[in-house]
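I am writing to request your help with a piece of structural work I have in hand. A protein sequence and the structure tokens that stand for its backbone fold form the material at issue. Please examine both parts with care and let me know of anything in them that strikes you as inconsistent. The record follows directly beneath this note.
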Amino acid sequence: MLLFALLAAHRNRVVGKDTIIETLWPDHAPPTAAQTVASLVSRLRKVVGTCLERVGSGYRLNTTGWQVDVDEAARLTRAAEQQLRAGEPAFADVAARRALGLLSAGRAVEEFQPAGWSADLDRTLQRLLRRAREAAWQTAEHLHDHRQGRTWPRRPRTTTPTTNRHGAP
């Protein structure tokens, strides 16, 4: 699970074998760590198929043909921002709401805190969530939807896909 989470967090980018070993065994890697990583990759490849690629001395999870929620939420957020700039708040509203729905669906990295790679992903998700909330707030303002505008405060709440409603991890 941790190997898949690490590769998914770095989807479409190579994760070096040393990084994988440091993530799986943060305190002390066993002498057989490289062989164990190879075995874990082989098992994971049976589940995800050939999209798990060996590249140099690392591995890449190629998600080009997949729909990854965070990537879709980023695309929708960009679309909402572009529609707002183009003066199309109704289209922006649809995109912003869909992005927020995806970003609110789960807590991607909670169980892997406080690993460095998960903190990077958490920061990325927090920035994206703030942008999506800002776009939703602006669309509500443009559409004079005061009820919806109260749902998406101008200053985003502390809740993120990786924190609880009180702002704690």
